[in-house]
Amino acid sequence: MRPYTHKVLYYETDQMSIAHHSNYIRWMEEAKMDFLDQIGFNYAVLEKKGVISPVVSVECHYILSTFFDETVTILVTMREYKGVRLKLHYEMLHPDGRVAAVADSENCFTDRQGKPLAIKRIDPAFHEKLCELAAATED
C-alpha cells in the first residue's frame, strides 16, 4: 500500500504552529478513504450501493507534535475484518520518519437507517478483498 500524505495547513494549527490534536482524526479519515481507493473500492461508489460506514470507535495516542507546513505520512494497515466491522491501524510519521501518533479506528457497515449490513451480500468483491487483506495481516 502506498502511504497517504497530508501537508499540515495553517488553519489546522494553534498560535505555536502546532497541529491541533483533533485534526489527526480527520487525517485518519482522509487516509481511510485513500486506503479504500487503493484497494479498488471508492467510498462514494459504496454509498451509491446503499452502504455507509459509521465510526464505532477511534483511539489516538499522540507521541510528538506536528507543525504547520510539515508533511505527515500516514500508514494504514488492516487490523481485522469480521464481515460487518472493519478495524484499521494508523501510524502518522514526521518527515524525518519519527512516529508522531498511532491510532486505531473501527467502522461498521450499515444501511442508511443504521441496520447492519453483511458486505458479503451487498458487494462480494469488496468482501473478498477485505478477507484477503485480513488474512495477510494474520500471517
Notes on the structure:
The chain contains 4 helices and 5 strands, in the order E-H-H-E-E-E-E-H-H. With 139 residues, the protein is α+β, with helices and mostly antiparallel strands. It has a single domain (4-138), classed as Hotdog Thioesterase (Thiol Ester Dehydrase, Chain A, Roll), CATH 3.10.129. The protein has a 5-stranded antiparallel sheet, with helices on both faces.
Summarize the structure.
The protein is an alpha+beta fold. The protein has helices at residues 22-38, 43-48, 119-122, 124-138, and strands at residues 4-7, 55-62, 71-81, 85-93, 99-108.
Topology of this structure?
Blueprint: E1 4-7, H1 22-38, H2 43-48, E2 55-62, E3 71-81, E4 85-93, E5 99-108, H3 119-122, H4 124-138
Antiparallel strand pairs: 1-3, 2-5, 3-4, 4-5
Keyword list:
single chain; 139 residues; Thiol Ester Dehydrase, Chain A
Radius of gyration: 16 Å
> Roughly what is the average pLDDT, rounded to an integer?
95
**Strands side by side in the biggest sheet:** 1-3-4-5-2
- Gross morphology is elongated
Briefly note the structural class of the backbone: alpha+beta
Strand content: 25-35%
List the quaternary state of the chains: single chain
Percent of residues in helices comes to 25-40%
What is the CATH topology descriptor?
Answer: Thiol Ester Dehydrase, Chain A
* Unreliable sequence segments: none
CATH superfamily: Hotdog Thioesterase
N-to-C CA distance:
17 Å
Reading the helices and strands in chain order gives EHHEEEEHH
